[in-house]
Design brief:
This protein is mostly beta strands and 192 residues long. It is built from no helices and 20 strands. The termini are far apart.
Length: 192
């Protein structure tokens, strides 16, 4: 049983619940383990599908809803934070780090990543590199370069798709590979 003092606030998502009781403790629930992890209160946690995160001074703490573990990385004030259901990105360019709930660890991006905001999908991150494009897979933590050119345009979807002239590229995160097909015409594409 969890002891509560004062008001209780609860956020719940698919695999995580964050319960703050009074001013002393925050309880993080992992659906993957069926257990709570209690931490000192004082920072505000936000919940995504498979994790919860909190900024605590110069640290970004992530609670993994699949494993029940907490992983920490450095955080500089005013640094961009982006998240999808299974990935969280802090920073831009070569200084960016990616947390994956599947590998339960932080991953550095390659040093030739350009200083742009990465596109975040459900379980991968699209990175613009000095030589083209790549995807960091949340399933493996590895980076997979695309054969698309640096001039390819990102299509507005969560599927991490690129159009490069008459080719359409999409990253398939379950297989951790890029797939492509030819397209005809200059009209807009709708990716569903």
């Amino acid at each position: 049983a969890l002891a509560t003092t004062g008001p209780v606030s609860i956020q719940a998502t698919r695999n995580v619940a964050v319960m703050t009781t009074g001013q002393s403790r925050t309880h993080l629930y992992s659906a993957g383990t069926g257990r709570f992890v209690s931490v000192a209160a004082g920072v505000r946690w936000f919940a995504a599908d498979n994790f919860a995160a909190a900024i605590d001074n110069n640290r970004l703490r992530v609670f993994n809803g699949l494993t029940g573990t907490i992983r920490t990385t450095r955080y500089e004030p005013a640094t961009a934070v982006h998240c999808g259901p299974s990935v969280l990105v802090v920073g831009t360019g070569a200084a960016a780090r990616v947390f994956s709930v599947f590998t339960d660890q932080w991953h550095d991006v390659p040093p030739d990543t350009l200083a742009t905001l990465p596109d975040v999908g459900a379980s991968a991150v699209l990175l613009r590199m000095t030589t083209g494009w790549a995807a960091l897979s949340a399933r493996t933590g590895r980076v997979y370069p695309a054969a698309a050119s640096i001039h390819a345009t990102v299509l507005p979807t969560n599927s991490l798709a690129l159009r490069d002239g008459n080719k359409l590229w999409a990253f398939a995160p379950i297989q951790s590979r890029w797939v492509s097909t030819s397209v005809r015409g200059a009209g807009p594409l709708k990716v569903r």
